[in-house]
């Protein structure tokens, strides 16, 4: 029995829209990344069950690779978008509620970073078919990261409505340059619009 199938692995298509045709592009990039984090966190939980009960097959190895790639490549870019560009802009508006929310989120962000450093070697070992002992923080990481993203959207992202068109364009330009510095072949592409009711 396979809990993980190729169709159950989230698409890793680029999530970078073009602000020239989408002034809400920067926020959509960040929300799209959060959606993928939610999807991959669910995949991580299924992978855990798969390995425990059914062992490692090619689908499990592929799933481990996708999770590794996204959290090692895209998530650091996402954090840079927030820490270097979005959050300083939002703080410049002088909203005390946003400042307090960002301060409150810092300990959880640090804790998730520690948990990822425990989960990462396990995923790498799944790819190599030489599984290490399951990290105790695996399920906690996979449930707390989506909850962290929910809090960030609920308590901080709403303030992005105050960005001017010029600020939004500059923010997305910085995002594009950040990604092209990692992969020069990468170009801006539109992110899919979120479904109604999505968090």
From TrEMBL:
Gene3D superfamilies: nmb1532 protein domain like (1.20.120.520). Residues 176-199 are annotated as: Disordered. Residues 27-157 form the Hemerythrin-like domain. InterPro entries: Hemerythrin-like. It holds the Pfam family Hemerythrin. This is Hemerythrin HHE cation binding domain-containing protein. It comes from Trinickia caryophylli (Paraburkholderia caryophylli). The lineage of its organism: Bacteria, Pseudomonadati, Pseudomonadota, Betaproteobacteria, Burkholderiales.
């Amino acid at each position: 029995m396979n809990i993980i199938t190729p169709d159950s692995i989230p698409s890793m298509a680029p999530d970078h829209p073009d602000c020239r045709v989408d002034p809400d592009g920067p926020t959509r990039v960040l929300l799209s990344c959060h959606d993928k984090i939610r999807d991959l966190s669910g995949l991580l939980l299924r992978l855990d069950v798969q390995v425990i009960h059914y062992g490692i097959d090619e689908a499990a190895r592929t799933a481990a690779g996708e999770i590794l790639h996204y959290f090692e490549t895209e998530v650091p870019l996402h954090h840079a978008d927030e820490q270097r560009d979005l959050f300083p802009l939002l703080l410049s508006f002088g909203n005390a509620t946003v400042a307090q929310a960002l301060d409150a989120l810092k300990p959880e962000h640090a804790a998730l970073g520690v948990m990822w450093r425990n989960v990462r070697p396990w995923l790498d070992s799944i790819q190599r078919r030489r599984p290490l002992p399951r990290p105790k923080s695996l399920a906690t990481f996979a449930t707390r990261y989506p909850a962290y993203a929910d809090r960030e959207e609920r308590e901080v992202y709403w303030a992005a409505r105050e960005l001017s068109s010029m600020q939004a364009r500059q923010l997305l330009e910085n995002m594009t340059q950040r990604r092209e510095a990692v992969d020069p072949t990468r170009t801006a592409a539109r992110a899919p619009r979120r479904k109604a009711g999505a968090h």
